[in-house]
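stage 2 :: seqdesign
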């Protein structure tokens, strides 16, 4: 583990931002606008998946709870298929595309991954990691939570498979 991510993790932990629950300031509001490029080179924004539920997963490759979250997101993907789009957003600007690609490959995370290079998405959605936001098909935030989110919790928002 490199020094900078470790320092960032310590700062986030000290500030209570590594999954200590809470956070629903965005629920009921339109998802904040964003424009990102996935590791595959696809440009995505807040309207890319309108008409579907979208799970925005704020994460970092070195974050242990984020690694656990991948398993939950895989279960959601298996259960809901194309009804739910997943986008993991790496909020650590010190990480590289190669590290993110390696993380996705090692953890069989087959959905798009993107970087929040300027920190705008992290600041508008919530900087704690992991943070999970579910956007409803109309573009409004239906759920926001810092910390681990189980597939069952996501299912309560998305509805029956």
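stage 2 :: out
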């Amino acid at each position: 583990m490199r020094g900078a991510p470790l320092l960032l993790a310590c700062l986030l932990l000290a500030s209570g931002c590594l999954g200590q629950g809470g956070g629903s300031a965005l629920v009921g509001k339109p998802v904040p606008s964003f424009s990102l490029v996935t590791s595959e080179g696809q440009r995505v924004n807040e309207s890319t998946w309108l008409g579907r539920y979208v799970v925005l997963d704020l994460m970092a490759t070195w974050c242990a709870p984020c690694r656990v979250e991948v398993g939950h997101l895989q279960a959601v993907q298996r259960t809901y298929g194309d009804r739910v789009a997943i986008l993991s957003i790496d909020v650590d600007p010190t990480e590289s595309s190669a590290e993110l690609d390696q993380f996705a490959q090692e953890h069989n995370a087959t959905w798009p991954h993107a970087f929040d290079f300027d920190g705008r998405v992290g600041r508008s959605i919530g900087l704690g990691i992991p943070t999970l936001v579910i956007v409803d098909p109309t573009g409004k935030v239906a759920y926001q939570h810092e910390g681990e989110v189980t597939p069952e919790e996501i299912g309560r928002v998305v509805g029956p498979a």
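stage 3 :: structure notes
- Residues 3-158 form a domain with the Glutaredoxin fold (CATH 3.40.30.10).
- The chain has one domain: 3-158.
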